[in-house]
């Protein structure tokens, strides 16, 4: 078994005429939280889709849990939460999670998944009556219920209030402590503080694989936004 849940070797993706991901090399260690960070449009979703195996025109090598991305054997081992909530609004919260549980033969885990994102009290509510943050948690529970080894979350905290955001990160940490690998994208640099490792992207290219502490130490900036700007400026100057 390799130590890395994901290995990206010289990964490039062309979308139309645009090079959305350009020669990215990076790894995601098992049992950790890795942040995929960078400005809007820098290629985060495209790279995540390459890991899931749903992206066309991927060049290079994407290895996931020791197998080529997209392998049939990976389907039940990866949970993917897209930016848009994947929820049936006419079903209750419990029915939504049960539906996804049936796909992975894991109906025994429904209560655990509801508890993991603090939805037990809302289990009987129809999804159409939920707030945006609650819907996001239903999506996360749907991805969790099959107990995936790897959980990929595309901007899970966008639009959430600070309390909910902190609460979700705490839950992500609990999952990582229990052995799940998490790859989490965000365009908010402050979220780097919740991650064990970071993959920084800009315009499809890798800026650095680093940590929040390293970003601060390297730039002398406390603000991670400022640190990111300094790193890309330095990189631009040395390119
Ligand atoms: N279907 C598509 N066809 C052509 N180009 C696309 C398509 N989808 C995205 N792109 C382009 O690919 C690039 C990367 O997009 P991507 O969605 O991966 O970025 P992102 O970092 O996830 O952005 P955001 O943070 O706004 O979600 C962008 O320049 C985008 O315009």
From TrEMBL:
**Protein name per UniProt:** ABC transporter ATP-binding protein
Transmembrane regions listed in the UniProt entry:
none
- Matching CDD domains: ABC_DR_subfamily_A (cd03230)
Q: Record keywords: Membrane included?
A: no
Q: Any keyword Nucleotide-binding?
A: yes
Q: What is the lineage of its organism?
A: Bacteria, Bacillati, Actinomycetota, Actinomycetes, Mycobacteriales
Q: Any idea which UniProt keywords this protein has?
A: ATP-binding, Nucleotide-binding
State the organism named in the record: Gordonia phosphorivorans
**Molecular function GO labels:** ATP binding
> Where would I find the ABC transporter domain in this sequence?
6-228
Against SUPFAM superfamilies, the record matches this protein to:
P-loop containing nucleoside triphosphate hydrolases (SSF52540)
| Source organism superkingdom | Bacteria
């Amino acid at each position: 078994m390799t130590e890395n849940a994901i290995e990206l070797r010289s990964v490039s993706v062309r979308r139309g005429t645009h090079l959305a991901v350009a020669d990215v090399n990076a790894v995601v260690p098992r049992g950790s939280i890795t942040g995929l960070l960078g400005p809007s449009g820098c290629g985060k979703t495209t790279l995540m889709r390459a890991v899931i195996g749903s992206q066309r025109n991927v060049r290079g090598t994407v290895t996931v849990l020791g197998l080529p991305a997209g392998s049939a054997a990976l389907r039940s081992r990866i949970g993917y939460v897209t930016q848009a909530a994947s929820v049936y609004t006419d079903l209750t919260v419990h029915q939504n999670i049960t539906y996804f549980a049936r796909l992975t033969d894991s109906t025994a885990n429904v209560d655990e998944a509801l508890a993991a994102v603090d939805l037990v009290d809302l289990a009987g509510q129809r999804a159409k009556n939920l707030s945006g943050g609650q819907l996001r948690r239903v999506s996360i529970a749907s991805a969790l219920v099959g107990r995936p080894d790897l959980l990929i979350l595309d901007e899970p905290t966008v639009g959430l209030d600070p309390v909910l955001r902190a609460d979700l990160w705490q839950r992500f940490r609990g999952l990582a402590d229990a052995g799940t690998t998490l790859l989490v994208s965000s365009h908010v640099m402050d979220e780097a503080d919740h991650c064990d490792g970071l993959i920084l992207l800009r315009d499809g290219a890798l800026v650095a694989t680093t940590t929040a502490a390293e970003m601060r130490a390297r730039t002398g900036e406390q603000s991670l936004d400022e640190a990111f700007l300094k790193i890309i400026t330095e990189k631009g100057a040395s390119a």
